[in-house]
Amino acid sequence: MSEFSNENISFWSDSVELPSFTALDKDIETEVLVVGGGISGLMNAYQLTMRGHEVTIIEGNSILSGTTANTTARIMAQQGLLYGQISKQKDEDSARLYYDSQMEAIDEIENIVNKHDIDCDFKRVDGVIYAVYEDSVKDLKKEAEVYKTLGIDGNLFRNEMKLPFETSAELVMKNQAEFHPLKFLQTILEVLKEKVLQFMNTRAVNP
């Protein structure tokens, strides 16, 4: 069962009509089985299919009915005060490698949007982490120094951004993105329709 209540329909779900799929009711063979019909599962299926693999997707509930239908819709390499943490726990090379991987993922989504001419409101935006209280600013300053060390495109601001609430500081990461996730994935489902077997209400292991 989905972790989200059917009484609380997100804007994404309410503005897109998604296809439904039958349950798997017989044994089949496939080269690759993708378990889960959210954005992670569909994008893995897309990438594998584009590389010539035979793919089947199974989803325990309805396709795109869980976390993906209720996402913030931000596509971000800025994920909290992460890069200082990675640099401390691993090293600076690992932190930069992670940042590069996230930016490449944003670029890949943009490339797919352009390739298939997907009308999903994709646009580049800045990511922002803010401190409400002055005693939290020191954490943003530390992360901003890590950005500088790693060569991450971002800056720390002090009450310079026009946010709809009061803040003490804002740490910006440039060139992030946002989109309508279900409009994007609606087209991905169309692309996969003739190439990938898709089943809903089907679990990898029966309880």
TrEMBL record:
Pfam families: DAO (PF01266). SUPFAM superfamilies: FAD/NAD(P)-binding domain. Residues 32-201 form the FAD dependent oxidoreductase domain. It comes from the Bacteria. PANTHER family: RIESKE 2FE-2S IRON-SULFUR PROTEIN YHFW-RELATED, SARCOSINE DEHYDROGENASE-RELATED. This is FAD dependent oxidoreductase domain-containing protein. It comes from Salinicoccus halodurans. The lineage of its organism: Bacteria, Bacillati, Bacillota, Bacilli, Bacillales.
